[in-house]
Amino acid sequence: MDIHQDICCGVTPWEQKVTKEVQIHLDDLIPQGGVMHFKKGHVIFYEGHHTYGFYTLKKGEIALSRVGMEGKNEHLPISAGYRNGLFGLFHLLTNTPHCATATAKTDVEIFFVPKSVIIDFLKQKRFL
User: What's the CA gap between 47 and 33, in Å, rounded?
Assistant: First the structure.
């Protein structure tokens, strides 16, 4: 499940199917990417910016926040216990900007899989 997509975006059956397939093969995709470390308080990605890949949280806790309908920030903390939680995959698939900002609430370790890897994977699986 793409937790980022769940809090701010509508989702189509195709996107659900792709997300499920990525989760099934996550252990194969992660080594093709890299590990990123962020200190507490650092921003991982910003609302309104385009993504260059997707993320999955290995250690620590992040918070997703966005400006709500009334102009107030809405927050959703996410911990590493969220198994196979994906961030940014929906926006990568739809070529849309992030609809939330991700900030490290603790020191975090994140796996990052670049867009080129996921595009190759989707072509191989005949999603594209």
Answer: 23
CA separation for the pair 41, 54 (Å, rounded): 20
Instruction: Tell me the CATH number at 119.
Output: 2.60.120.10
Element (H, E) at 90: helix 89-94
How many domains is the chain built from? 1
Q: What is the pLDDT of residues 92-117, one digit of tens each?
A: 988 999 888 889 999 999 999 999 99
Q: Which helix (H) or strand (E) holds 71?
A: none
Q: What is the DSSP letter of 4?
A: H
Residues spanned by the domain of 50: 37-124
